[in-house]
Specification:
mainly alpha
Length: 242
């Protein structure tokens, strides 16, 4: 049994292997992971807003197109979507970002997350009371102004916690971009750890990568949960005042 514990320690928690990969994880992997997650989230949010509006549109054909978009991207495995977009578009001659693999990675993750964000935004937009919309229209506001000044601000505010929670999933999703063959300077946490694990035939670098992901996601998870509870309490107070 003691030998088995030593073997586990050497395989997953070798201090030498972790110390060797640590500088790369901190200096290259961590910044790239955060930057990639931010870019993907911005792309996803922009696309999601368009799709969410389409899901709430009166035109049946537009709702159908947006629903198909959401269902397809949510139904396909993420690894397949990233591979198709990141590798498939350039092969098909649609070099949207030239040879910039990093941009394809952000675009692929952003499209995936937009399908989930669209449903979150749709729920937020539809939660705005119709009485406010009718009051705005009665004051002479056009449908566009009503959407920009009444529906959109309130709808987004009500779903900020789940949208922030989705950012946590984006961070974890960045681990899949290793499929696209990033350059040395573009590698994120998982790519660096995987290369080190393969080169040294030891899984300790992956353990180190896991610790980095936990340091990023666990505090954010607790923060989002606390935020949701706080907003829930505030909503109850407002409801009680009414």
């Amino acid at each position: 049994m003691f030998d088995g514990l030593i073997k586990i320690q050497q395989t997953f928690f070798d201090p030498h292997e972790i110390a060797e990969v640590l500088p790369q994880l901190i200096l290259t992997g961590l910044p790239n992971t955060i930057l990639l997650a931010i870019l993907a989230s911005l792309i996803g949010l922009a696309c999601a807003l368009v799709v969410a509006v389409g899901l709430s549109a009166r035109a049946r054909w537009l709702r159908g197109v947006c629903r198909a978009y959401v269902d397809i991207l949510r139904g396909l495995p993420h690894i397949l979507t990233i591979y198709i977009i990141g590798q498939g578009l350039p092969l098909a001659g649609l070099a949207l970002f030239g040879n910039n693999t990093y941009a394809y990675a952000a675009f692929a993750i952003g499209l995936i997350e937009s399908a989930y964000m669209a449903e979150i935004l749709r729920a937020g937009l539809q939660s705005v009371e119709k009485g406010q919309i009718e009051a705005a229209r009665s004051l002479g506001m056009s449908p566009a102004k009503c959407f920009v000044y009444i529906i959109l601000p309130q709808g987004i505010r009500r779903v900020l916690p789940p949208l922030t929670g989705q950012f946590i999933l984006v961070i974890k999703g960045t681990a899949l971009v290793f499929l696209l063959g990033l350059t040395t300077s573009q590698r994120e946490i998982f790519s660096i750890a995987q290369d080190a694990a393969i080169n040294n035939a030891n899984l300790s670098p992956l353990t180190a990568a896991g610790i980095f992901y936990l340091l990023l996601t666990v505090p954010m998870t607790y923060a989002v949960n606390a935020w949701e509870r706080r907003m829930g309490v505030q909503s109850k107070r407002v409801g009680g005042d009414d």
